[in-house]
Design goal:
By secondary structure, the chain is mainly α. Helices cover about 90% and strands about 0% of the residues. About 35% of the residues are buried.
């Protein structure tokens, strides 16, 4: 009898966790979701705070003549050497692909002469700034996050604070200004190379005359398109450098923490670029429909 009661009690004890498993799983998922959401908001807040401090600190350093010109020059040269050749290598296939895809569609409509307008605007407003952002987000922000992350785990950042030196003014602002200087130059380089590659494909395999290509390109493309492209590149550069600096300054846990920070900075940069590009394109379409057409 006692054994039977014990067995019954044991069966009841075994059945209880099984009956509560769905509720426990839902509670764990809910708690994890709340934790991730709060952590994301806190991280976003720290990124915004760092961005504001860097922007305000830039003007303060310029007015007080404390701006780090030497460090900014070194960062500019480093970013140019890292991104210039990959930019050309990415711009050529992008211009070729745009010219081929749009050219096939336009040829079916019997409007071969419009290939210059369609391909040129596609490269200027979408291809060039996106390629610039992805290059800076891949090569630029990874380098920045790795550099600052290594300094953080070696306690160099804490040493700067101990000596009364603000790491934002010493390390973040020069990298931000260098990125904002390099981004438009890289964007213009990609525009020239991409349009040139599309032109070569159009007058070659697709049989478009050079005169009609440039005539339609000049008729539809305007300086506003170039301005929009450069503004996009500046915004993308600003996003990736702030994200890279924030992840680098908050690296924890040794070399593994630095690697995780670099990975997070690249992923967040790409996601931020895609989201912001959609928003800017929508706003541009609303206020300048003819330029986007």
């Amino acid at each position: 009898m006692i054994k039977g009661q014990a067995d019954a009690g044991g069966d009841k004890a075994q059945d209880t966790p099984i009956m509560r498993t769905p509720q426990s799983l839902a509670g764990v998922l809910s708690a994890n979701f709340r934790g991730v959401s709060l952590s994301s908001l806190e991280t976003f807040g720290r990124v915004v705070a760092l961005a504001l401090e860097a922007v305000v600190g830039t003007f303060t350093d310029l007015f007080t003549r404390r701006f780090q010109w030497a460090e900014t020059t070194r960062q500019c040269w480093f970013m140019i050497t890292v991104t210039a050749i990959p930019a050309v290598l990415m711009a050529i296939p992008f211009g070729v692909v745009v010219s081929i895809q749009i050219g096939n569609l336009i040829k079916q409509l019997g409007a071969d002469s419009l290939l210059g307008a369609a391909g040129g605007i596609g490269v200027i407003q979408q291809g060039a700034p996106l390629t610039t952002g992805l290059l800076l987000g891949g090569a630029g922000t990874a380098t920045i996050a790795a550099d600052l992350g290594a300094r953080t785990i070696r306690e160099e950042i804490d040493a700067l604070r101990t000596m009364g030196i603000n790491p934002v003014h010493r390390l973040v602002i020069p990298r931000m200004v260098a990125m904002l200087f390099v981004a438009p130059l890289l964007n213009i380089l990609i525009i020239f190379v991409g349009v040139g590659a599309g032109y070569a494909v159009a007058i070659g395999p697709q049989g478009v005359t050079p005169g009609s290509y440039w005539e339609t390109f000049g008729a539809f493309a305007s300086p506003t398109d170039v301005v929009i492209s450069i503004v996009k590149a500046l915004i993308f550069g600003f996003l990736v450098v702030i994200i890279g600096c924030q992840r680098g300054l908050e690296a924890r846990g040794g070399p593994r923490g630095v690697a995780e920070g670099v990975n997070a900075s690249v992923v967040l940069s790409v996601v931020a670029i895609m989201i912001v590009n959609v928003l800017i394109t929508q706003l541009t379409t609303m206020f300048h429909p003819m330029q986007v057409a």
